[in-house]
Amino acid sequence: MDVKWGSLGQVALVSFGATVGVVVVFALGVRALAARQEARAHGATGSAQGQVAGVCFTVCACAVLYGLYLIIPQFH
Length: 76
Hints:
Keywords: Membrane, Transmembrane, Transmembrane helix. This protein has helices at about 5-40, 45-70. The protein is mainly alpha-helical. It has one domain. Helix 1 (about 5-40) packs antiparallel against helix 2. The mean pLDDT is about 95.
């Protein structure tokens, strides 16, 4: 059995980067929701923060669905 260490390292780096990216985008979405609530408490609408949160959570959902698509062979 021959392990291609370069390919293994590449997969590890890409998976680490994707994981950090999804976590950061999710955290930005949570922060945007908190900012929306703060804006509403001060009398503003907070619609921009709500839209940012929606985009962030949509990106996270798409990343999860794409990962499931790659893992489950019946989807191909």
